[in-house]
Specification:
The chain has 7 helices and 9 strands; from the N terminus they run αβββαββαααβααβββ. It is an alpha+beta fold and 242 residues long. Strand 1 and strand 2 form a beta hairpin.
C-alpha cells in the first residue's frame, strides 16, 4: 500500500519553534517521501559528526585495516574534555575498537571519538562522507568539548546530509549489510532518550536509534524510528535557542 504523507503538523511545529531560534529539519517518512526545512543549511554538527566516524571505522574493518577486537591502552595524553567517561579512567586501561565505538555512540565519549578519528583519519572520513552523499558536511577537527575558536576548523553538517547518512545505514549501502546492522545496534544503544525518542511508546514493536549532539548554542539529534507501519528518518539541528 502506498500513501502520501501529511506534513502540515510538522511544518507548523517547526515554524513555531523557529521563532525562538534556528531549526533545520530533514525527515524521510514511511513512504520514503522527504520533508525539509533549511535542509541544506550548514549547522554546527556537535556530536552528530560521530555518525560518519562510525561509518568509516566499519568500512576500514571490512578492508582489514582496523580490527574490532584490536585493543588500545588509554594514556594521559588521550584525555579530552566534554562528554564521556574515559577522561576519568586510569591510564593503561585497555579498550577494544568495539568498546570505543560503543562509548562514542551510546554516551558520546569524546576521548573514544578522538581515538577512532586518529585510527580512521580525518581525510578518509571526509572522503567517505562525500561517497555516501554527505556532500556539504565536513569533519574539520577532533572533539574539544567546546565550539572551535575563531579561525579554527569546525565540524559542520546539514540536516539533509545527516538524514542521508542514516538512510545509507538503514538501506545497507553505507557499508556491508552486516556492518550496517552492527551500526544500527550501536545507535540503538543511545542513552539519551529525551530527543527523537521522547514521546515514543514503550513497545517491543517500536525500535529507535540516534546520535545526539550538544555544545554551547547547539542542540541536535539524528536517527530513526522503526515501527509496524514503516520507518521514519529524522535529522533535527537547533541553534541559538534560549
Amino acid at each position: 500500500m502506498s500513501w502520501a504523507t501529511e506534513w502540515g503538523r510538522l511544518a507548523t511545529t517547526v515554524a513555531d519553534a523557529g521563532v525562538r531560534g534556528t531549526v533545520g529539519v530533514s525527515v524521510y517518512g514511511a513512504n520514503n517521501e522527504q520533508w525539509q526545512h533549511f535542509g541544506d543549511r550548514l549547522f554546527g554538527a556537535a556530536s552528530t559528526i560521530k555518525i560518519p566516524v562510525m561509518i568509516e571505522v566499519f568500512r576500514q574493518v571490512e578492508a582489514g585495516k582496523i580490527a574490532l577486537d584490536g585493543t588500545y591502552a588509554l594514556t594521559d595524553a588521550d584525555r579530552t574534555n566534554g562528554s564521556g567517561v574515559m577522561r576519568h579512567l586510569h591510564a593503561g586501561m585497555e579498550f577494544t575498537t568495539h568498546d570505543l565505538l560503543y562509548l562514542m555512540i551510546a554516551i558520546s565519549d569524546n576521548t573514544a571519538t578522538n581515538l577512532l578519528i586518529r585510527m580512521a583519519g580525518i581525510e578518509q572520513i571526509n572522503r567517505t562522507m562525500a561517497k555516501i552523499g554527505m556532500s556539504r558536511s565536513v569533519l574539520g577537527r577532533p572533539m574539544y568539548g567546546r565550539p572551535a575558536l575563531p579561525g579554527d576548523p569546525e565540524n559542520y553538517a546539514t540536516p539533509n546530509d545527516m538524514a542521508q547518512a542514516i538512510k545509507a545505514i538503514l538501506d545497507g549501502t553505507a557499508a556491508s549489510r552486516q556492518s550496517c546492522d552492527a551500526m544500527m545496534g550501536l545507535l540503538e544503544g543511545q542513552q539519551n532518550a529525551r530527543r527523537i525518542a521522547r514521546y515514543l511508546p514503550q513497545s517491543n514493536s517500536v525500535r529507535w536509534g540516534s546520535k545526539t549532539g550538544s555544545v554551547v548554542g547547539v542542540t541536535n539529534d539524528v536517527g530513526y524510528v522503526l515501527a509496524p507501519n514503516g520507518r521514519l528518518i529524522v535529522a533535527v539541528f537547533c541553534e541559538n535557542f534560549p
